[in-house]
Design goal:
EC number: 2.3.1.286
Order of helices and strands: HEHEEEHEHEHE
Number of domains: 2
Number of strands: 7
Strand order of the largest sheet: 4-3-5
Organism: Parageobacillus toebii
Mean pLDDT: 88
Distance between the termini: 45 Å
Number of helices: 5
Radius of gyration: 18 Å
CATH class of the largest domain: Alpha Beta
CATH architecture of the largest domain: 2-Layer Sandwich
Helix content: 10-25%
GO molecular function: histone deacetylase activity, NAD-dependent; metal ion binding; NAD+ binding
Protein name: protein acetyllysine N-acetyltransferase
Largest sheet: 3 strands, antiparallel
InterPro entries: DHS-like_NAD/FAD-binding_dom, NAD-dep_sirtuin_deacylases, Sirtuin, Ssirtuin_cat_dom
Strand content: 15-25%
Shape: globular
């Protein structure tokens, strides 16, 4: 299960730092991310909703105790220090329920700008957020920022 050691040595990139800069200049920034790497938090962003969870923690499925990445990386198969059960990474597995999706929809409905950055918009239900905004909050601007076009690019050009 944990055959890959998670070293935690990945660093935030220019995109992460840009969003942090927006916070630094006083903008209210809410980040909805499907990434599980924790880099938005590592960059210093304070309002991050990790929709697919995070690899920075793991939880015991038996007793519910949560452990940090340092604990998880101590052994090849990390087990709960309380009950001995093998830990589960705090991520949404394919086909699983997306964490905090209701909060995500509520937060974007309050926004005046949605930046959809580096996303294919292929994974439901998160891919519905830009279209929800267009229907429910037409005054909110949506900007799609990608290196290449997706099948949704034309739909989001207003």
């Amino acid at each position: 299960m944990f055959s890959l050691k998670l070293m935690g040595d990945f660093a935030p990139n220019a995109g992460h730092r840009f969003l942090r800069w927006l916070e630094d200049i006083g903008e209210t920034v809410v980040i909805l991310t499907q990434n599980i790497d924790g880099l938005h938090t590592k960059a210093g962003n304070t309002n991050v909703i990790e929709l697919h969870g995070t690899l920075q923690t793991a939880t015991c499925p038996s007793c519910g105790k949560t452990y940090d990445l340092a604990f998880v990386n101590r052994t090849d198969v990390p087990c709960c220090g309380e009950c001995g059960t093998i830990l589960k990474p705090d991520v949404v597995l394919f086909g699983g329920l997306v964490s905090h999706i209701e909060e995500a929809f509520a937060r974007v409905a309050e926004s005046d700008l949605l930046l959809a950055m580096v996303t294919s918009l292929e994974v439901a239900p998160v891919n519905q957020i830009p279209f929800y905004i267009a229907a429910e909050s037409p005054a909110t601007r949506t900007v799609l920022i990608n290196k290449t076009a997706t099948r949704w690019t034309e739909c989001l050009i207003l």
